[in-house]
Structures are given as structure tokens and as C-alpha cells.
Amino acid sequence: MVVGINNKVRAGYNFGSRGFTLIEVMIVVVIIAILAAIALPSYQDYIERSRRVDARETLTRIATLQERHFFQDSTYSATLDGMGGAASPEGWYNITLEDCDAEPCSTFTITATAVGAQLRDEDCRTFSIDQTLRQTAESEGGADTTDICW
What we know:
This protein has helices at 22-73, 146-149; strands at 9-10, 13-14, 93-98, 109-114, 126-130, 135-138.
């Protein structure tokens, strides 16, 4: 079947249903790449900030258990035994107990240090809380970042 060029049909080929051109597909790919380049870092920052809750919750819980121990025994515990261990529940932070040099322990400092994927969080690398419930945080370089981390 041969029809005139004005009707856009020649030898069974319909010119009206060509599909997408390579340029159109490439434009869509570029748009998706730009959106991904913007969204991915924002998402990673959000994930890092949400994992900080793991450290804050763990430190607050252990400080509460230390106060309970002090109330019962008139001394703080020198170890993390019975307080949840040396890692946060989600595993994003290692927990250490410091400042108990002699028995009876009258002071303590509990520190949560980022591990694994949470090491990408350069702003809040370590969190600490002491017996006065003073909360501190430090960046990767050691700068005080308490205001943004707690």
C-alpha cells in the first residue's frame, strides 16, 4: 500500500508512532542523574543524624543505671556489666566507661564512639555523659559539637 507523503503512511510504515528518540531518553537520564546527585547526599546525612539517637539513648540509659547503682550501693559501677555491654543496641557506637580509678567510684564518664558506617558522621564522632549529666560531643577533629549533636 503506497499512500502520498502528505498522509505519512508509505509501504505499511506509520510515521506517527515512532517512539522515543535517543535525545529524549538521554534528557530523562540526565534529569534522573541530577535528582540522584542532590537526593543521595541529603539521604545519607539524614541517616547519620538518625543514628545519633542510638548513642544518646544508650548513654542516657547507662547513666540512669549508674544512678540506680549509686542509690543502692553508694558507689558507681566500675564496669558496664549488667548495663547493656560495650556496644549500643543498634551497633553504631562502642561504649566505654571511664573515670572510676578507685573504689568506691564517685565519678564516671560514659563515652559512645562511632564505628562502622557511622564513622562517616564527621560532626558527631563521640558522645559523652558524666555523673552530673553533663553532655558533650566532639567532631572527628576534636572540636566541641555538643550544641548540634545533643
